[in-house]
Amino acid sequence: MVRVGVVAVQGDFLEHMQMLRELSRATPVAVKSTRDLNNVDAIIIPGGESTTIGGLMKVRKLDVVIIDLAERGVPIMGTCAGAILLAKKVVDRVVGETGQPTLGLMNIAVVRNIFGRQRDSFETEIHVEGVGKIRAVFIRAPAVTEAWGEARIRAYVDHPSVGRLGAVAVERNLLAVTFHPELSEGLKIYEYFLNMVKR
Question: What are 72-93's pLDDT values in tens digits?
């Protein structure tokens, strides 16, 4: 069984844990302290409020341990707010530079709230390289606007007001997903993520 630590300090971590329980080869572990990261095979940073999650991770020293595990090759998936926290460059569509704490692990630039606020949320079908077609739910979502070095954008979303933007990016053992896979019916993204675990 793959032990997947789900950062459980804020946001929709319970939904991720429920999705993982539907997979026969995954065991979710709620991560609230550094000791919860002992013996995990992979980590998910959920959607929620990125500034809050980043701040709480810093206070609890989860950030230091997660950065260390990432550097040792442990797969990490960040969804929505989690994708923001993985990025090396983050700006907000309205306020610009945020100065928020991030893990700074991925060579990607992310723009927060790029599609607008809560009322501008939407659902659409996208094609993810290596995964196939999936329904993607975007809620106050960010987008990947740039990838460099070893990072690659693996899926795009076409939006009527802001154009074509990155929805999924991969860099070695890191996976940034700008939508909410835990709110769709499919498990394809989770299967793809678990396949990143070296057994």
Answer: 999 999 999 999 999 999 998 8
pLDDT of residue 34: 97
Task: Judge: domain 2-194, CATH 3.10.620.30.
Answer: no
For 1, half-sphere exposure in the C-beta direction (CA atoms, 13 angstrom radius) is 14
Answer yes or no: are the C-beta atoms of 173 and 76 closer than 8 Å. yes
Q: Are 132 and 175 in contact (CB under 8 A)?
A: no
Domain extents in the chain: 2-194
* CA 14 and chain centroid, separation: 15
Q: Give me the pLDDT at residue 199, please.
A: 60
**Which residue numbers are catalytic?**
80, 180, 182
**What gap in Å lies between CA 170 and CA 146, rounded to an integer?**
12
Q: At which residue do the structure tokens 């990432």 appear?
A: 70
Q: Is the pLDDT of residue 172 over 90?
A: yes
Structure tokens of 157? 């979303």
